[in-house]
Specification:
α1 runs antiparallel to α2 and α4 packs parallel to α5. The protein is built from 6 helices and 17 strands. The strands form 4 sheets. An 8-stranded mixed beta sheet has the order 6-5-7-8-9-10-11-12, sandwiched between helices. A 5-stranded mixed beta sheet has the order 14-13-15-17-16, sandwiched between helices. By secondary structure, the protein is of the alpha+beta class. It folds into 2 domains: about 10-150, 2-Layer Sandwich (Fructose-1,6-Bisphosphatase, Chain A, domain 1), CATH 3.30.540; about 165-270, D-Maltodextrin-Binding Protein, domain 2 (3-Layer(aba) Sandwich).
C-alpha cells in the first residue's frame, strides 16, 4: 500500500535558508519510526567498515527522512549516519539524522532504540527530536524548551529522590578497564540519544557516552541545554560541536549531567 504523508511547514531564517520548526517535524519523524517498526525483530545485520552494525531499516528510515526534510527546509544541509551530506555544504545550519540510534539494541530485539533528528545552528544544538517507536516516547527540544510527550520538562529539574539513583553508560565501558565509583546503579540501554533524554527528563543523574558522532549527540545536547544540564568531555573540556560537523567521532568520551550535578558526577567517572 502506498503511504501518504502530510506537508511539513518551513520556517525561514536569515541567509536564504529555510529551517524547519522542530515541532512540525515530529509527525515526519513519527512516520519514520513506523517504517522502522516494520523491520523490528525481522532484520539481518551487516558490519560497516567501522565494525558498527547497520540494517535495511537504518537505510530505509534515513532515505525517507532525507526525501521528506527538503520540503520543509529547502537547501538546508543534512548530515545522516548512513547517507552522509546532502543539501548545501556551508549554510551555518545542519539537520542531523540518526535513523536508528541503538542499532545493536534494535538487532537484539530490545525496545530502547530511537529515531533522532537534531538541529545545529552556528555550532550550537538548538533543537531536536528523539522518538522511541516501541515505547511511544517523544522528546522535543525547541526554542530553549524541552518536552516529553508534550509535557514541558521544567528547567533545573534534578532526578527525583524516589527509587534507586542511577547513571547510564555506553555498553563498551567494561572493555576500557574503567572503574566507575558512582554509588548508585549503572545502566546501559543501548542508545546515546535515549540516555541523554533520560538525563534531561530527570530520570538519570548523568550519562557517560562513548566517542559519539554529531548525529548521536545533537538532539540530546539541545534537550540537556534546555533544562540547564551540563555536557563536557570526560577530561572536563567543553564539547565543541563545530569540529564534529564533518561526521568525525568525538575525540573523547562525552559526559552529560543533570542540572547542578556535573561537579559531583565527573570525579566518579574519571577514575581508571
Amino acid at each position: 500500500m502506498r503511504r501518504r504523508y502530510g506537508a511539513v511547514a518551513p520556517v525561514r531564517y536569515g541567509g536564504g535558508v529555510s529551517v524547519p520548526s522542530m515541532s512540525t517535524l515530529v509527525a515526519t519523524v513519527t512516520e519514520a519510526g513506523k517504517i522502522a517498526r516494520e523491520y523490528f525483530q525481522d532484520v539481518v545485520a551487516e558490519r560497516k567498515a567501522d565494525r558498527t552494525l547497520v540494517t535495511a531499516a537504518d537505510r530505509a528510515v534515513e532515505e525517507f527522512l532525507v526525501a521528506r526534510i527538503p520540503a520543509a527546509a529547502p537547501g538546508v544541509r543534512i548530515l545522516g549516519e548512513e547517507l552522509g551530506v546532502s543539501g548545501v555544504r556551508d549554510g551555518g545550519c545542519t539537520l542531523t539524522i540518526d535513523p536508528i540510534d541503538g542499532t545493536s539494541a534494535f538487532v537484539a530485539g530490545l525496545p530502547t532504540w530511537c529515531v533522532t533528528v537534531g538541529l545545529v545552528r552556528d555550532g550550537r544544538a538548538v533543537g531536536g527530536i528523539t522518538h522511541l517507536p516501541m515505547t511511544g516516547e517523544t522528546y522535543l527540544a525547541e526554542g530553549g524548551e524541552a518536552r516529553w510527550n508534550g509535557r514541558v520538562i521544567p528547567a533545573g529539574r534534578r532526578p527525583a529522590g524516589e527509587g534507586d539513583p542511577f547513571i547510564l553508560t555506553h555498553s563498551d565501558v567494561h572493555r576500557s578497564g574503567r572503574v566507575i565509583r558512582f554509588p548508585g546503579k549503572v545502566r546501559a540501554l543501548g542508545s546515546t540519544a535515549y540516555h541523554m533524554a533520560l538525563v534531561a527528563r530527570g530520570a538519570a543523574r548523568a550519562a557517560l557516552l562513548g566517542r559519539a558522532h554529531i548525529w548521536d549527540l545533537a538532539a540530546g545536547v539541545a534537550l540537556i541545554g534546555a533544562v540547564g544540564g551540563a555536557i563536557c568531555y570526560l577530561s572536563g573540556a567543553p564539547v565543541d560541536l563545530r569540529v564534529l560537523l564533518a561526521g568525525e567521532r568525538a575525540p573523547d568520551y562525552v559526559v552529560v549531567a543533570a542540572p547542578g550535578m556535573l561537579g559531583e558526577i565527573l570525579p566518579q567517572l574519571q577514575v581508571a
